[in-house]
Amino acid sequence: MEKIIQRIKDYEGYSDKPYQCTAKKWTIGFGYNYEDRGFSVSDITEILSKGFSKEMADRLIVKDFQRCMKEAEAFPFFKTLNEARQAVVIDMIYQLGIKGFKAFKKMLDNLGKGNFKGASQEMVNSKWYTQSGRRGRTNVQQMETGVWQEIK
Fold first, then answer.
1. What is the pTM for the complete model shown?
2. Residue 124 to residue 85: CA distance in whole angstroms
3. HSE of 74 in the Cβ direction (CA atoms, 13 Å)?
């Protein structure tokens, strides 16, 4: 879990100020899209009294990771993947949301068949790949090989 969360943190970077991500969604912390996900009442109370903190960002990413993990586990193939490939699935769900991830129908079909080269090729053949830079390149390599890749 920690390794995957750290990977997402490395990709997302940290900001204590709101910004619009490439999808034009308001975001803060480690890529926390609060426009779609919102904040709990207790989070809002904390932000109003103390400001947005790194501690809050750490709590939000753990909560989001748990949600992404649960969504990933709903795919029958997920438990058959090794940790490196599971990390790619979780990272893509974190970045795209479950709806965006489910749009990768051919990739999902290939994962269901255990065809990692085909799944990787479908990742490359997407708008996501051209927009994701190093994240896309690293995740494609990691999905194809099943080996943790260094972020370059």
1. 0.93
2. 16
3. 9
